[in-house]
Amino acid sequence: MVVAHNKVVQIHYTLTNDSGEVLDSSxxxxxxxxxxxxxxxxPGLEKALEGKGAGEKLNVKVSPEEGYGAKDPSxxxxxxxxxxxxxxxxxxxxxxxxxxxxxxxxxxxxxxxxDMVTVDGNHPLAGESLxxxxxxxxxxxxxEEELSHGHVHGPGGHHHx
Length: 161
Prior knowledge:
The chain has 2 helices and 9 strands; from the N terminus they run βββαββββββα. It has 161 residues and is mainly beta. It has 2 domains: 8-68 and 126-147, Chitinase A, domain 3; 73-120, Thrombin, subunit H, CATH 2.40.10. Strands 1, 2, 3, 4 and 9 form a 5-stranded antiparallel beta sheet that branches. It has a 4-stranded antiparallel beta sheet with strand order 5-8-7-6, with no helix packed on it. Strand 6 and strand 7 (103-113) form a beta hairpin. The two termini are 31 Å apart. The mean pLDDT is 91.
């Protein structure tokens, strides 16, 4: 069975940036399980996995356009420190949800100079090429329930508490 639309796929992966720094990895844990073709992975990785089978290993380089997009300079803003009511310890790297004209969005504090705080609403990996080292561990048909819910149940997938 090969990776195709609506198949349940389990992968082990390591994600690195162009400097070779590991950004994310399933190593030492459960493989990531997802339903293929439903936008659960970034487009560049889904495209590379299409048609591959269990046991295959591949290295995939994903451009920013097929990953988290290019950096959008309009999402970087300088905000006066007084706008952060109730947050005492503002520091570089702090992430929080902010209201934008496109609804709630995660922003990251990237710089603090005096009373001005720079926040960036881009995805932290926007503008970066992403390098995935992937091993496909399983490809199977989804259950009716998984298909109707749009996500995988059981190991590596969605759990109900």
